[in-house]
Amino acid sequence: MKQSQIRVLIAKPGLDGHDRGAKVIARALRDAGFEVIYTGIRQTPQMIAAAALQEDVDVVGLSILSGAHMTLCPKVVELLHAQGQEDVLVLLGGIIPDEDAARLKAAGVHAVFGPGTTSAEIISYIRTAMAGA
Amino acid sequence: MPKPVPTQQLIDSLLRGDRLALARAISCVEDDAKDAAEIVRAVFAHTGKAHFIGITGAPGTGKSTLVSALVESYRASGVTVGVLAVDPTSPFSGGALLGDRVRMTSHSGDAGVFIRSMATRRGAGGLAKASAEAMLLLDAAGFDCVLVETVGAGQAEIEIASVADTVVVVEAPGLGDEVQAIKAGLLEIADIFAVNKADRAGAARTVAALEMMLETGGAAAQSIMHHGQRMETGAAASESDAEGGWSIPVLETVAVSGGGVAQLRDALERHSAWLDESGGRAEREGRRLDHMLQTLVQAEVLARLERGLAPALRGELVELMQRRQIDPYSAAADVIRKLSR
C-alpha cells in the first residue's frame, strides 16, 4: 500500500494537438487528490520518459488521437523500463481499436481507456492499482 | 510503484549524479518518508557548492518561460542546472496540477538539466514544504546552479528570500501603478528586477516605477515580521548591499524570444561575484540553514501539538466557548498547559 502522494504524468505524444481530453483528465485527477504533472502537446517518447524520471511519477497517462499509438506507446514503455522505471503504471486514452489495445497491453501498457470512459473509472483504476502495489 | 531501493545504495547513486536516485530522493523528502532524514544526513557534507537562484513574481508574469530561457543561457556556457518549479496544492482535494514543464520542454534530452515540479503541499510563503531539502539534494547531485521558481506570488509570499542566494522578482507591464511599487512585501526582496513581456505597452512605466521605488529606498527594510518572528530577508541584505556595492538592477526581458536574457544572466553573474566578494554568500547560506532548522523544529512541534490536541478535547472546549463558559484565550491557555505537562 502506497502511503505517499500519488504522482501522475499526463502527456500527449506525437503530433496531434487535441489536448482537451488530456486537460480534462488532468483536472479530474487533481480533484481526486493526485499531483498531476502536465507536459503539454507534441512530446516525443524520449521527452515523456525523461519527465517521468525527473518527476518520479507512479503513473504515466498518454493521450493519443492521431492513430500513432502502435508506434509511440511501446516506445514509451521500453524507455521507462530501460531507465529502471519498470513499476510505473502506463495508461492510454484515446481512439484505440480493440485489436490494438490487446497488442498494446501485451507490450506493457496496463490499461486502455476509450471514448465514453468516465474520469471516475480512471481514478478508481489508479487507486486500485496503487493500493495493490 | 518504485521497488524499494536500499537507502545507502540510493545515497551512493545520488552522489554519483544518478538522475533516478535523485528523483526518488526528492520524493522521499517530499513525502517525509522515514529515510528522508538519513538521506539528508548522508549528503549534507557534499553540499554548499551550488548557486541558488529564486525566481518569483505574480502569476502570468512569465516566470516559467524566463526560467527556461535562463536554463538555455546557462547550458550554452556548460553550467549544469537544476530547476524546482513550485505550483500550489489544492487545499480542498490535496491534489495539484503542476504545469510549469509545459514552458520548459526544449531542455528534454539534455543530461545537464534536471527539472522537478513540486506541489506546495503544506508549505507556506510560495514554496513547497520540502523545497529547501530538494535544493540540497540537487546541490549534492552536482548541479552548479539551481533555479527555484515559486508559485505565482501575491504581495507577501517571500519565503524564497530565506533560502536563495539571489532573488529575481519578475514583473510585467500593466499589473499596477506606482502605489503598487511602494507597497511592502514581494518588491522588498529583489536582488534583481526583471520586467518581462517588455515588448508590451507600459513596460517603460513599470521600469520607471520600480526605479523610483529603489531610488527612494523602498527596498531598504531592515527586517520583517514573519511567523511572528523577526526574519532577516534579502531586503535586509539589500540595505547593506547598497554600502557593499550592489545596486539592484531593473532589467527588461522578453523571455519568449530570449530578449534581455543575456543581460539578466550577466546581472546574475555579477550578483554571484558580489556575493563572494562581500561575504554575502556565507550570510545567505547561514540564513538558509537557519530557515531549515526553524522549519524542521516547527514541523516536529506542530506534529506533537496535533497529536496532543485531540479532536475530543477540542470539541469539548468549543462547546464550552459556545456556552460562554470559557473564552478563546483561556481555552488556548488550557490546551498549552495540558500539552506542556
3D structure, described in words:
- The complex is a heterodimer of chains A (133) and B (341).
- Chain A has helices at residues 20-31, 45-54, 69-82, 98-106, 119-132; strands at residues 7-11, 35-38, 59-64, 89-94, 111-113.
- Chain A starts with 6 loop residues before the first strand and ends with a helix.
- Chain A is an alpha/beta fold and 133 residues long.
- Chain A is globular.
- Chain A has one domain (7-132): Rossmann fold, CATH 3.40.50.
- Chain A contains 5 helices and 5 strands.
- A 5-stranded parallel sheet of chain A has the order 2-1-3-4-5, sandwiched between helices.
- The longest helix of chain A has 14 residues, at 69-82.
- In chain A, α3 (69-82) links the parallel β3 (59-64) and β4 (89-94).
- Chain B is α/β, with parallel strands linked by helices and 341 residues long.
- Chain B folds into 3 domains: 1-46, no CATH class; 47-279, P-loop containing nucleotide triphosphate hydrolases (Rossmann fold, 3-Layer(aba) Sandwich); 309-340, no CATH class.
- Chain B has 13 helices and 10 strands.
- Chain B has a 7-stranded parallel sheet, with helices on both faces.
- In chain B, β6, α7 and β7 (192-195) form a beta-alpha-beta unit.
- The longest helix of chain B is centred in the last third of the chain and has 29 residues, at 280-308.
- The model of chain B is unreliable at 218-243 (pLDDT under 50).
- Chains A and B meet through α1, β2 and α2 of A and α2, β3 and β4 of B.
- β2 of chain A pairs parallel with β3 of chain B.
Summarize this, please?
The complex is a heterodimer of chains A (133) and B (341). Helices cover 44% and strands 18% of the residues of chain A.
